[in-house]
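Structure in, sequence out. Go:
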């Protein structure tokens, strides 16, 4: 298709009866215009993918919070089953649509090693840390703490490009620390407004989220977001199930409970992760993290509407500080 387009372009230029130099200049100009238009389309699709991925991820936190509050659901069971079901859905879709890319990945031992690291330090750490933070705090707080991933990504970008942080980035670090402090203490340094364990696992979830954006960058370009994300989830779920054995202690879920779980697995995992990773592929980890700050807004709003979660003034200021931080650091 690209060759056909180039041939058509050559024919159009020849028909304009331009001289050799003029043809060369016109060719370069049109190639630049074509590349710019393609880049703009990719940027728009990347922004939209990341935006909806963030919305779905924030809503998934509310679903998990609902299961924790209304059913005796174990955190490890939920994390394991979420990965297994999501990975299984991905596998079916991949076998139907991207079988060649899947087999190419499975044959490449080096890339499978990178995928294993991605599954452990990205998918597993992020999902388990996120769900544990929800159980210890609430969906909105867990999602905001996860947004601190941008600081990690910023530091990584500075180290790999051998540059110092910009002034706006340093201001963002300060805002991130202020926001985390307000969430953790409620403005009173002698008191933790959220459990210390919740703060720790929330920060671990942020580390996992940063690893998800950084580690698979080359694999995303090579094999696509669905293959990398789906296989990472399935691999993480299989390994985790060997220890958790979710089939041995199934929770007593009714129809509403299973519906919440399906939404969590299908929408909050499959759609959220695949869309976000597509955004990382199209617009890069830094910009994807920026757009992903819709997550705490989605989580807080849906948590307040569905679960009646009440946030204090310091919570809201903490949310705002971290969201402003994200805009400053990109």
């Amino acid at each position: 298709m690209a060759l056909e387009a180039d041939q058509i372009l050559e024919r159009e230029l020849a028909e304009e009866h331009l001289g050799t130099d003029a043809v060369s200049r016109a060719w370069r100009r049109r190639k630049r215009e074509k590349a710019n238009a393609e880049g703009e389309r990719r940027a728009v699709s990347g922004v939209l993918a990341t935006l909806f991925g963030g919305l779905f991820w924030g809503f998934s936190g509310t679903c998990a919070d609902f299961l924790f509050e209304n059913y005796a659901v174990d955190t490890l069971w939920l994390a394991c089953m979420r990965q297994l079901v999501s990975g299984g859905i991905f596998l079916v879709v991949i076998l139907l649509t991207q079988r060649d890319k899947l087999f190419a990945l499975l044959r490449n031992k080096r890339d499978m090693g990178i995928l294993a690291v991605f599954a452990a330090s990205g998918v597993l750490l992020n999902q388990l840390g996120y769900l544990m933070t929800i159980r210890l705090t609430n969906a909105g707080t867990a999602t905001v703490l996860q947004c601190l991933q941008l600081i990690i990504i910023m530091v990584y970008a500075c180290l790999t490009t051998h540059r110092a942080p910009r002034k706006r980035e340093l201001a963002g670090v300060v805002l991130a620390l202020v926001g985390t402090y307000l969430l953790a203490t409620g403005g009173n340094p002698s008191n933790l407004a959220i459990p210390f364990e919740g703060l720790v696992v929330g920060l671990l979830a942020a580390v996992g989220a940063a690893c998800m954006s950084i580690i698979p960058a080359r694999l995303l370009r090579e094999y696509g977001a669905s293959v990398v994300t789906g296989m990472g989830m399935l691999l993480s779920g299989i390994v985790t199930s060997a220890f958790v054995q979710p089939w041995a202690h199934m929770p007593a879920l009714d129809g509403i409970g299973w519906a919440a779980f399906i939404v969590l697995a299908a929408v909050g995992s499959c759609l959220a992760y695949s869309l976000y990773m597509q955004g990382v592929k199209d617009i890069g980890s830094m910009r994807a993290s920026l757009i992903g700050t819709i997550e705490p807004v989605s989580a807080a709003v849906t948590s307040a509407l569905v679960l009646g979660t009440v946030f204090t003034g310091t919570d809201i200021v903490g949310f705002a500080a971290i969201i402003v931080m994200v805009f400053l650091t990109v």
